[in-house]
Amino acid sequence: MRAIGRIFAALIGFILAVIAAALFMLVASVGFEPADPADSLWFWGNFGVGAAMAASYLGAMALTPWAVVIVVTEAFRLRSVLVYLVAGGALGILPALGIAPLMRPLDNDPRNIAILIAAGFVGGFVYWLTAGRMAGIDGVFLTGSRHPKDGQ
Q: Residue 91, SS3?
């Protein structure tokens, strides 16, 4: 039962991390307020649609690599925030290196590369806050339990 709980924690953590990273990318790209207060309704409508599109695209692109990170951290009980920050930053730099699928080249624009890396850091930190701090608790996955059951 604990393994099922950890799977749900990882799933919820991934979803929250993707949403946080997408919101960060959108705010860093277009800002958090409209240029003209008269256009605020149009701006917030577009912001909501843009956030949903960015989160869905980001989630689709990050699912497989982040699943590998989740399996490794759960199996080896890696709970350090640095592991998740490095993994998130590495996922953020993949498009700059031209490795991310379905991503157009960034033409080495330093601002876009910095936004992607920082969004990866944000996503990694949010995942650590929601699920990574408890990775491998009680040895649910590959390593088995630390404490024998029934006092054996």
A: helix
Q: What is the pLDDT of residues 51-60, one digit of tens each?
A: 999 999 999 9
> Which one-letter DSSP state was computed for residue 87?
H
Segment among 15-19, 74-78, 87-91 with least mean pLDDT: 74-78
**Nearest Cα to Cα of residue 58 among 134, 132, 115:** 115
* 137-140 long-range contacts, CB within 8 A, separation 24+: 137/2, 137/6, 137/77, 138/2, 139/77, 140/2, 140/3, 140/5, 140/6, 140/74
- Listed residue (96, 87, 99, 128) closest to 115, CA to CA: 96
Tokens 């790209």 correspond to 29
Q: pTM score, two decimals?
A: 0.84
